[in-house]
Write a structure and sequence with these properties.
The chain is an alpha/beta fold and 395 residues long. 39% of the residues lie in helices and 9% in strands. The strands form two sheets. A six-stranded mixed β-sheet has the order 1-3-2-6-8-7, with helices on both faces. The longest helix is centred in the first third of the chain and has 28 residues. It is elongated.
Length: 395
């Protein structure tokens, strides 16, 4: 009996000692600043960037499988995970106290004044000879907004002829063993109707803006009558849209011709553009059909890079305009918070996800951005310049 009692006492004492050691060890693990500051907990501390290398394991395959099982064990929960958290500095926010209340939306100063730009100097800037030099015979040039506007004005092309050729090109791009899949919805009758109305305005000299008659593709993340806003899925947008998103309405008011709906990564949650469901399919990079376009505005970038349209509309939360624009060699611009209306768009993170154009040139991106925005700040003269020079270019 004495021996059993002694053994039990030793076991209990051992457990207690081990428990104390674990508690002390975890307290040390939970204090990532213990070696760099002696300020008490709960008080604000000065923050500096620690750009040192993180000491974390690089695991794959069977090692990752066994490591995940280890993390699910008692040793993993009480020892390995705390060590990993400390090594990655993930507990920094527990010591940091913010003196201000959190701001969930960026603070934007309302725009109360429009910029005033001299018309003559603005037109001279747009028409500088060095900006209008034709390309060499062995180079490629995208068809830009201003190029099409000048072709319409000179009579060498009409919106009807351009849109008809684009619709044929869209059909051709999806033929063969490796379809482009840039445009996933288009309505020939609707597109030709809009092109016909623009052609009538062209003949009568009543063009609405420099975008009148310009073909545009819109990402499937926006409401566009009469198309489905499926957001890259097979289960959303079962019924056609009944109203336009604000950006689409602005395009219509400017006279642009919406030729179709651009493909996208499902729900905008990926950066490859791979979306192999029955409505969409994989968007392919026009420069190499075996490469990804990037995402999530995959079809928008592919449509511009392939020369189907000079303008496509996308939306960007974490790179969904900028990534595919980079991978497809076009210009992508993510709108600033509050500058472009998100009404009528499927927005899952309104503080960071904003509409923006994908275009063949920087000038085209500025023109579209100016159409989408209601005004400009005193320091943003280029936007106002492009707004006001549209009338001059079409005069």
């Amino acid at each position: 009996v004495v021996q059993i009692t002694t053994t039990m006492s030793l076991v209990v004492a051992g457990v207690l000692v081990l428990g104390v050691l674990v508690v002390l060890f975890r307290r040390w693990l939970a204090d990532p600043y213990s070696k760099i500051t002696d300020k008490p907990r709960g008080k604000a501390i000065s923050t500096v960037y620690n750009l040192g290398d993180l000491v974390l394991p690089k695991l794959a395959g069977r090692r990752l499988l066994w490591f995940s099982r280890l993390l699910d064990s008692v040793i993993g929960r009480w020892l390995v995970i705390p060590i990993a958290i400390r090594q990655s500095n993930a507990l920094m926010l527990r010591r940091f106290r913010m003196s201000d209340n959190p701001t969930y939306y960026p603070i934007v100063k309302p725009l109360t004044e429009r910029c005033q730009v001299n018309f003559a100097s603005a037109y001279a800037e747009m028409e500088r000879p060095e900006r209008r030099q034709p390309p060499s015979t062995d180079s490629f040039e995208f068809t830009s907004v201003t190029t099409l506007a000048e072709a319409y004005r000179s009579g060498t092309a009409t919106p009807l002829s351009v849109v008809e050729a684009i619709l044929s090109a869209i059909e051709s791009s999806d033929m063969g063993p490796k379809p482009l899949r840039a445009i996933v919805q288009f309505n020939k009758e609707e597109a030709m109707r809009m092109a016909g109305e623009s052609t009538s305005r062209l003949k009568s000299g009543d063009l609405l803006s420099i975008l009148d008659g310009i073909p545009v593709a819109v990402k499937e993340q926006f409401n566009v009558v009469p198309y489905h806003m499926r957001v890259g899925t097979t289960f959303l947008g079962e019924e056609p849209s009944q109203t336009d998103a604000t950006v689409v309405q602005k395009l219509r008011e400017a006279g642009a011709v919406i030729v179709g709906i651009a493909n996208m990564h499902e729900l905008g949650t990926g950066t490859t553009g791979c979306n192999p469901n029955r409505y969409h399919g994989l968007s392919r990079n026009p420069y190499n059909v075996n490469y990804y376009t990037g995402g999530s505005s995959s079809g928008s970038a592919a449509a511009v890079a392939a020369g189907l349209v000079p303008i496509a509309i996308g939306a960007d939360g974490g790179g969904s305009v900028r990534i595919p624009a980079s991978m497809c060699g076009v210009v992508g611009l993510k709108g600033t918070f509050g500058r472009i209306s998100e009404f009528g768009a499927a927005v899952t993170a309104s503080t960071v996800m904003h509409p923006g154009p994908l275009c063949s040139t920087v000038e085209d991106a500025a023109i579209v951005y100016s159409e989408f925005t209601a005004g400009c700040s005193d320091g943003n003269l280029m936007m106002s310049l492009l707004v006001q020079t549209q009338t001059i270019l079409l005069a």
